């Protein structure tokens, strides 16, 4: 009897020890470290200056004075400067008849430069042959073989690399790819993942006159990012940040939200991306859904308790009043759990909507505004330009928490929080201009050069 009891105790002890060991292994494998990242800086001869933009619009014979005035209002209020980049075919004046090769060359320019730069920075400990997982997202271009296959071939990656190629996911694809890479790493021990985000602008210029579809021409610009991740504890000392949580939300079941950013044909059969006036509203709604899950994961218990108590008091006070207007409800102080806000620079309206929703100040949204001004909306890679701005400015300190928020067609809102683990002092793509930001005045010169359009009478005008 005593022997049986002893064996039982030993078995239980062994089971507990095994479960503890298994839990520790799962925790180690669930770690996701940001080893390094690179934001692509295209060549200067691809910059969209005021003169180039004017010539580009003038080349379109379908546009009249009404469209000129509309485009002028959009670009003046866009928050975009004169340092953004376009694909080569648009620079060369071939936007009306793009070829498949134009799209391929746009991708290759990014692949050959940005990914090579990333491995150049990390080559002493991570080489292309060390990559176990590759996740690529390009929403508007899906050739065969895939972009992921081109990267595997270009950099001679291993035959067993797990390669994923995402398309059609919009500006939120960067964090979707991050989530996919993190989950793939969880099934592997001491593994490395490469996440590549870019967008295809070359074949997707809209040449028509539908104003909701002309907006995309004004906002989207060339760019891209390459991000190196790992769950290897041995690389923790080299990591810049560690991923703490990631939340994805999709409100596509709502018809208005689903249609607010939609690729479609106009009345003349020309294809483009339609951006409706309901987009900021959809972004706020998707963000609200996302925050319900995100807030409890990133905010301290004291802040959650304060907010809950405020709701209870408001309900009690409103029920005790017979007359009078509604009192303003309590607001969550997100700064109690986050030091830095890395917001998707999808446009001034989106940035302002998130700013109001989180009760942020101008300093909190400065990185997003400056990224929009310098780079435009580079789609899924935009968040990494915002993060790079923070790093270039020397604002990220060990222990700081960084909240990333992005939006995309569908309509989707994705968010994640990082904790800074190492020194972050790389100026990256901002190296040659970060000291000039923020400028005293972010107004672009379009109104100065083309404001006379508002004084023209008639329907015909020459730029």
UniProtKB/TrEMBL annotation:
Residues 337-419 form the Beta-ketoacyl-[acyl-carrier-protein] synthase III C-terminal domain. One of its GO terms (cellular component) is membrane. CDD domains: CHS_like. Residues 1-22 form the signal peptide. Residues 26-316 form the FAE domain. Pathway: Lipid metabolism; fatty acid biosynthesis. InterPro entries: 3-ktacl-CoA_syn, ACP_syn_III_C, FAE1_typ3_polyketide_synth, Thiolase-like. GO terms for molecular function: acyltransferase activity, transferring groups other than amino-acyl groups. It is an enzyme of class 2 (transferase). Its EC number is 2.3.1.-. Keywords: Acyltransferase, Signal, Transferase. GO terms for biological process: fatty acid biosynthetic process. It comes from the Eukaryota. Belongs to the thiolase-like superfamily. Chalcone/stilbene synthases family. This is 3-ketoacyl-CoA synthase.
């Amino acid at each position: 009897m005593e022997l049986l009891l002893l064996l039982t105790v030993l078995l239980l002890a062994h089971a507990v020890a095994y479960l503890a060991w298994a839990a520790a292994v799962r925790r180690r494998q669930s770690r996701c470290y940001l080893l390094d990242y690179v934001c692509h800086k295209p060549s200067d001869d691809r910059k969209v200056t005021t003169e180039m933009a004017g010539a580009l619009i003038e080349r379109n014979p379908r546009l009249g004075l009404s469209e000129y005035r509309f485009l002028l209002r959009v670009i003046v209020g866009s928050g975009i400067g004169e340092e953004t980049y376009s694909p080569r075919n648009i620079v060369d004046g071939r936007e009306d008849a793009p070829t498949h090769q134009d799209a391929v060359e746009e991708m290759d320019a990014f692949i050959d430069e940005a990914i090579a730069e990333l491995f150049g920075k990390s080559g002493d400990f991570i080489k292309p042959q060390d990559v176990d997982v590759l996740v690529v997202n390009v929403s508007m271009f899906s050739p065969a073989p895939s972009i992921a296959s081109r990267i595997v071939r270009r950099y001679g990656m291993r035959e067993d690399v797990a390669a994923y190629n995402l398309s059609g996911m919009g500006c939120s694809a960067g964090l979707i790819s991050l989530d996919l890479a993190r989950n793939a790493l969880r099934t592997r021990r001491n593994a490395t993942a490469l996440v590549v985000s870019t967008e295809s602008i070359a074949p997707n210029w809209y040449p028509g006159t539908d104003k909701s579809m002309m907006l995309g021409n004004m906002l989207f610009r060339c760019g891209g990012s390459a991000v190196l991740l790992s769950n290897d504890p041995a690389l923790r000392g080299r990591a810049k940040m560690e991923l703490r949580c990631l939340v994805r939300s999709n409100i596509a079941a709502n018809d208005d939200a689903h249609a607010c950013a939609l690729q479609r044909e106009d009345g003349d059969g020309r294809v483009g991306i339609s951006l409706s006036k309901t987009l900021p509203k959809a972004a706020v709604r998707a963000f609200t859904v996302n925050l319900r899950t995100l807030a409890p994961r990133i905010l301290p218990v004291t802040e959650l308790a304060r907010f809950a108590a405020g709701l209870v008091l408001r309900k009690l006070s409103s029920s005790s009043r017979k007359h009078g207007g509604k009192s303003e409800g309590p607001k969550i102080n997100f700064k109690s759990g986050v030091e830095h806000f890395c917001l998707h620079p999808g446009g001034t309206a989106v940035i302002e909507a998130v700013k109001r929703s989180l009760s942020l100040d101008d300093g909190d949204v400065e990185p997003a505004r400056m990224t929009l001004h310098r780079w435009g909306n580079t789609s899924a890679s935009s968040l990494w330009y915002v993060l790079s701005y923070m790093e270039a400015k020397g604002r990220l300190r060990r222990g700081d928490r960084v909240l990333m928020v992005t939006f995309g067609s569908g309509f989707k809102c994705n968010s994640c929080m990082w904790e800074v683990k190492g020194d972050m002092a790389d100026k990256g793509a901002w190296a040659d201009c970060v000291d000039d930001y923020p400028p005293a005045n972010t107004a672009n010169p379009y109104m100065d050069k083309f404001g006379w359009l508002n004084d023209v009478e008639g329907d015909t005008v020459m730029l």
